[in-house]
């Protein structure tokens, strides 16, 4: 029976301040933690046993998932007391994974494709490993695959620092999508308690032995390495879910939404459970609102993600922003980002009445957890 391991121990430094109070793996994506969505995808492919490789805020992740029973799977945990790299992390879990092949996932990727098809491809091609791949327009931040079409063999695996196209002109390129299907023989190539990257220290050896193949995936794939990509990934996945549900109105709205008076919704919009929206509000497009959120009169929100338990008072405007859980936005505040730079509030932030947070052209505005924003003045840097 195929198993799974999700690497969920990173600091999420580039996602700060969102990851100051929440481990990267629990960052909400369309109102579910990113690794919960990965677990459900694994479950849909018949995976019943999953290892979460944790380190940073491991207690928070363990308290959320426990033994996995609420999701219908069995979850084991491994704790990295010091960084071991991607290969070292799975070596720690060898006792759970040694009896059959297993999926290995990076826990910071938004994905939505059929894992069953990847299992079928692995059976067809054989080998020790199968790498999910995706074509992206700018491969400069990813590992690149040089492949033999037809046989699906990987000829070379290039880390991002090794790939230099002629004239540095990056174009659509096949990259490593951070999802692998591996045979337990992989453990023979990994020394215990040694820091090692599987992409650098193991895959090149397997490629020389002609034991690595690739599987081009369709469907949603988005790395959430930074807040801008996190917002884009939320919107991308929301659109995909809506299209699969064939929603007639283009939205995902919980049936117990409490609306008072006039409300304009511009699809696509997702609204969670126990949300209250007062009169004369305008929501959307591209808005995801979590559970137990209150929104006062005459509020405008677009291109934004609002986490659970937020309270947004009247006459507030929010655009190009990610608002973490339990934030309080007072009357008349404006939180306006732009296409390149967002407004990012960590948990329990309070923005006082009529404060304007307007992102400049060269940097996002970030507010750390439990801060009270009384005023904000910023000028573009030269």
From TrEMBL:
The keyword Transferase applies. CDD domains: NTP_transferase. PANTHER family: SUGAR-1-PHOSPHATE GUANYL TRANSFERASE. This is Uncharacterized protein. Residues 3-234 form the Nucleotidyl transferase domain. Keywords: Transferase. It holds the Pfam family GMPPB_C.
């Amino acid at each position: 029976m195929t198993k799974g391991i999700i690497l969920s121990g990173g600091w999420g430094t580039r996602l700060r301040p969102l990851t100051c109070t929440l481990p990267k793996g629990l960052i909400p994506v369309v109102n579910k933690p990113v690794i919960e969505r990965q677990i459900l995808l694994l479950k849909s492919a018949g995976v019943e046993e999953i290892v979460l490789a944790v380190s940073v805020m491991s207690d928070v992740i363990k308290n959320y998932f426990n033994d996995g029973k609420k999701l219908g799977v069995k979850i084991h945990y491994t704790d990295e007391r010091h960084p071991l790299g991607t290969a070292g992390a799975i070596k720690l879990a060898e006792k759970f994974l040694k009896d059959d092949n297993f999926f290995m996932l990076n826990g910071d990727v938004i994905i939505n494709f059929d894992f069953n098809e990847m299992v079928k491809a692995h059976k067809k091609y054989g080998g020790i490993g199968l790498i999910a791949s995706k074509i992206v327009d700018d491969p400069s931040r990813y590992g690149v695959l040089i492949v033999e079409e037809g046989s699906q063999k990987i000829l070379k695996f290039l880390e991002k620092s090794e790939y230099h196209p002629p004239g540095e002109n990056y174009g659509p390129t096949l990259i490593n999508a951070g999802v692998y299907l591996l045979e337990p023989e992989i453990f023979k190539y990994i020394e215990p308690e040694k820091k090692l990257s599987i992409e650098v220290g193991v895959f090149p050896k397997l490629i020389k032995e002609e034991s690595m193949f690739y599987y081009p995936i369709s469907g949603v794939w988005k790395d959430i390495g930074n807040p801008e990509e996190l917002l884009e990934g939320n919107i991308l996945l929301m659109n995909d879910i809506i299209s699969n549900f064939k929603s007639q109105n283009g939205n995902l709205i919980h049936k117990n939404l409490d609306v008072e008076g006039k409300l304009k919704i511009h699809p696509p919009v997702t609204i969670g459970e126990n949300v209250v929206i007062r009169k004369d509000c305008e929501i959307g497009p591209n808005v995801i609102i979590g559970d137990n959120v209150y929104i006062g009169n005459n509020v405008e929100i677009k291109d934004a993600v609002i986490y659970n338990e937020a309270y947004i008072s009247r006459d507030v405007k929010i655009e190009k922003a990610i608002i973490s859980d339990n934030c309080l936005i007072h009357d008349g505040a404006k939180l306006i980002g732009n296409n390149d730079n967002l407004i990012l509030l960590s948990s329990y932030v309070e923005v006082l009445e009529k404060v304007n947070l307007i992102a400049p052209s060269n940097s996002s505005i970030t507010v750390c957890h439990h801060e009270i924003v009384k005023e904000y003045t910023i000028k573009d840097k030269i």
